[in-house]
């Protein structure tokens, strides 16, 4: 039932994904730390209204942050993401286990929990859908990281981390944006409008 959590000024370097297990959390303060990335699991905090991340080391935001439907205030000042973003994005080929898991999920191969070891059943449940609606693929650990710029509140363009299942898969709503701000102009207007509706206040200065 926790609603307010203040963790500012604690030299925190990473946010534990377990914070997503606080369904009533409305105000989360993580300012003045050493945080470099936001776990996508935070998108499960559907009651979150205010998220303070100023004075950290963030260079991008996870795309899932757009799922915070009640978020009204997002504080990002004092982070590198307002002036620069990730430029060296590499892709590690998937393991044989992941390739097998992708095949099972994309081809809807039927199986029951009694057919496979428990660890494999758990692994298959961790599949993430590729955000490209024309793809239909999945990934587990290995994916293509891509930076997309999204318009917040019609005023600020922020870099969101976008995950695709393979190097051949590109988002239909924009071209890959990795190292050029000019490429951000072709980003999805639909996604931008969603962000603008949901984020009432983005504090960068």
TrEMBL record:
Pfam family, one: LRR_1
Region (Disordered): 172-195
Start-end of Low complexity biased regions: 172-185
Record bears the keyword Repeat: yes
Keyword Repeat tagged: yes
GO CC terms in record: cytoplasm
Protein name as it appears in the record: LRC58 protein
